[in-house]
Amino acid sequence: MNRFDKIRLIVCDVDGTLYDWDRILSPRTIRVINELHERGYGFSIASGRPYEEIVEYADRWGFPFQFDVLIGLNGAELFSLKQNRLYEYYKLSTEKLKKATEIMKRFDCNPFMYWHQKLLCVKVDDMIIKSSKTSEREIVVADDISKLYEEENFKIMFRMSEEETARAEAWLNAHPDPDFTALKTQSTLIEFMDPRISKGFALEELRDQGEYKLDEIMAFGDTTNDNSMITTAGWGVCLANGSEDTKAAADDITRYDCKHDGFADYIEEHLFRRN
Predict the structure, then answer these.
(1) What is the pLDDT at residue 19?
(2) Could you tell me which of 8, 69, 24 has the C-alpha nearest to residue 44?
């Protein structure tokens, strides 16, 4: 049996995997996702963005069907189309949110979070404006940083320059804290979440619900917050543009990057057997 014959569900990260930062899904990728659906494969997206945002993607991208599984907030949210149910897991307490802001004071960063369908931040800068536009959320500026830890939340995020992000990532890796998972999810973004949460955790929850076995799942990603998903799935693939740690975690690497249909090419070659 070919290693891909068992595959029933394709799970994809979005930014840096399905498309580049222009956020335009290519015609080839659209054709491949439609063909996956026609051939009976399940299709899922796994994102750091919240469910309320990613549930709109199928319609926004022009698909006549909803995706079978949606993984939001890096695994804190799991939606099953078959069950028509959204599962939510493990918010950070107010004390832990405050602790995260204290830890990150040593870096030049702008903390923010998804908050009541808005973006709550400490100050408005170009990166926050860009985040607001891509998520289509109104910006709310907190009078005081304490506003960010007045109530529980699934995660808190910190925008900064690429150089400062690299410095923060190195410090956080050298000083692990049992209260958090702190990951670089973009070149200018660090996210703090409950340590039990990951995209791999969401796949395990999906397995425990009896919908898919792990060896029936093929996962695609490009950076550190995708590593757990790539190693948990039966077959994990990193995009050619991916980070070195994600390439090391993967079973395979695409021939092309996300700008040149790396995901679509891989599916055509390995699942559709087209060269």
Answers:
(1) 93
(2) 69
**Token representation of residue 119:** 């973006």
pLDDT greater than 90 at residue 191? yes
pTM value surpassing 0.85? yes
Give, in order, the Cα–Cα distances in Å from 84 to each of 36, 66, 162: 21, 11, 39
Clarify whether residues 100 and 176 are in a common domain. Answer: yes
Tokens 């939001």: give the residue: 72
Q: What is the CATH number of the domain that holds 175?
A: 3.30.1240.10
The span from the CA of 86 to the CA of 88, in Å, is: 7
Those residues with Cβ within 8 angstroms of residue 192's Cβ, 6 or more apart along the chain or in another chain: 92, 96, 97, 100, 155, 156, 157, 158, 180, 181, 182
- Which one-letter DSSP state was computed for residue 256? S
Residues with Cβ within 8 Å of residue 52, at least 6 apart in sequence: 72, 117
The answer to whether residues 84 and 136 belong to one domain is no
